[in-house]
Amino acid sequence: AAAEPHELTGAAAMADMMSILSASYKSAGLNVPSKTPYVAVDPTLYEGSWSGKYPDGKTFSIKVSQVDGFRAKVAYSSGTTNKYQDVLIKDNAFRFGDTKFLLQGNGRALIKNVVTDPATGSTYLDQAIATRN
């Protein structure tokens, strides 16, 4: 007799399904394919200190410096999280870690941050507006 395919049941099936959804959620929130080339940007639109507040009340700050062509240095801080990274700017946006910065106008940017809950391992997308100080 042929072996039946193994089926996940109960908690295992739910955990597997949640990990698939989580991975899809992350990629849908931050990865938008672009076919445009990297081009030099106006440093005055990006450089400076940016800050904002997530819907749950957590504040964040982003310092963008040394914008040269389409490259820049970024420092991000929120709570106990600190990230420092060199970034590439394309389509008015750049990514650092699990966070995306999208310039919306002079002195205003949309921040999308994928957050993983350490207790459950689940992820969610935090969005906020950052303004240049």
| Quantity of strands, as a count | 8
Radius of gyration based on Cα positions: 19 Å
Q: Major beta sheet, specifics? A: 8 strands, antiparallel
| Global mean pLDDT | 85
Q: Can you tell me the overall shape?
A: globular
Strand line-up of the largest beta sheet: 4-3-2-1-8-7-6-5
- What fraction of residues sit in β-strands? over 45%
Tell me the distance between the termini.
71 Å
Helix coverage percent:
10-25%
Number of helices: 2
Structural class: alpha+beta
The arrangement of helices and strands along the chain is HHEEEEEEEE
Low-confidence stretches: none
Summarize the structure in words.
This protein is of the alpha+beta class and 133 residues long. The chain is 19% helix and 47% strand. It has helices spanning 10-30, 43-46, and strands at residues 48-53, 59-68, 71-78, 81-88, 93-96, 99-105, 108-116, 123-132. It has an eight-stranded antiparallel sheet. Strand 1 and strand 2 (59-68) form a beta hairpin. The radius of gyration is 19 Å and the shape is globular. It starts with 9 loop residues before the first helix and ends with a strand.
